Amino acid sequence: MALSAPEWPAEWPAAAVLEGNRQRLLRETRATMRRYELRYELRSADLEAALRAGTIRETWEVCDWLFALRTHRELAETALPESPDAPTAPEPE
Amino acid sequence: MRLAALTPHFVWEDALGYAMTHGRVRWTGALLLADGLELAVKKTQAMRLGAAGLEVRTERYAYQLLRPAAGEGRRGVFRYDNFHDHPNHPDAHHCHRYQDDGTQIEPPEYIGAAGWPTLGDVLDEAFRWWCDHLQPPAPR
């Protein structure tokens, strides 16, 4: 048994760490989207419309694609570091 | 029932990882479970600094239970997610279930914003499924 998840930090991470993660995730999600675009012969920009139209089914693989697409969008919109005093307003659970 | 209570007899390895960015944390990976089961996770949480430290609230999630299938890798058992709206569902919280042959049952089951599960809830359901399907009968 190995609990391998990294320890949860007690403080707001340094801006350089957050930005480094953002850049890495941008690269990874871009590669993921490209892989699925080639496999399905569909642009990522058209994925949500294809799901609504029922021309593609929501499988676990498609969830992975959606996750990459939305993560990429969010990261592209947050180019400037935010202050921990003004974080993204969360939705109530 | 939660992770610690199900470790190590059911949860064999925690292979979940996270990456924090500005205002969000994203989780990917899996909990590796007994008898080859796997609970795969993709989750995005909003993150803020509260009085007690970092606080998170889930925005999007997908939890999929996979089981081993002879000769073909893994098959789905169920998947809870809110990644995509479905026709006639008031919101995006739903559950996909699979037949024994791996076919996805249509339409997905509506769960709703009032009842969507946490990872702990889904782990509990995975444990119940394991108890019902995979454990050999107790010797007499």
What would a concise description of this structure say?
The complex is a heterodimer of chains A (93) and B (140). Chain A is an all-alpha fold and 93 residues long. Chain A has 3 helices and 1 strand.
- The DSSP helix count of chain A reads 3
Give the overall shape of chain B. Answer: globular
Principal-axes geometry of chain A comes out as elongated
User: Strand sequence of the main sheet of chain B, in spatial order?
Assistant: 1-2-3-4-5-6-7
Summary tags:
heterodimer; A: about 90 residues; mainly alpha; about 55% helix; B: about 140 residues; 7-stranded antiparallel beta sheet; 7 strands; about 45% strand; globular
Structural overview:
Chain A is mainly α and 93 residues long. Chain A is built from three helices and one strand; from the N terminus they run βααα. In chain A, 55% of the residues lie in helices and 2% in strands. The longest helix of chain A has 26 residues, at 15-40. The model of chain A is unreliable at 81-93 (pLDDT under 50). By secondary structure, chain B is mainly beta. Chain B has one domain (4-133). Chain B has one helix and seven strands. Chain B has one helix spanning 119-133, and strands spanning 11-21, 24-33, 38-50, 53-68, 74-81, 94-97, 109-110. A seven-stranded antiparallel β-sheet of chain B has the order 1-2-3-4-5-6-7. Chain B starts with 10 loop residues before the first strand and ends in a 7-residue tail after the last helix. The model of chain B has no long low-confidence stretch (mean pLDDT 91). Chains A and B meet through β1, α1, α2 and α3 of A and β1, β2, β3, β4 and β5 of B.
Strand and helix layout:
The complex is a heterodimer of chains A (about 90) and B (about 140).
Chain A: E1 2-3, H1 15-40, H2 47-53, H3 60-77
Helix pairs in contact in A: 1-3
Chain B: E1 11-21, E2 24-33, E3 38-50, E4 53-68, E5 74-81, E6 94-97, E7 109-110, H1 119-133
Antiparallel strand pairs in B: 1-2, 2-3, 3-4, 4-5, 5-6, 6-7
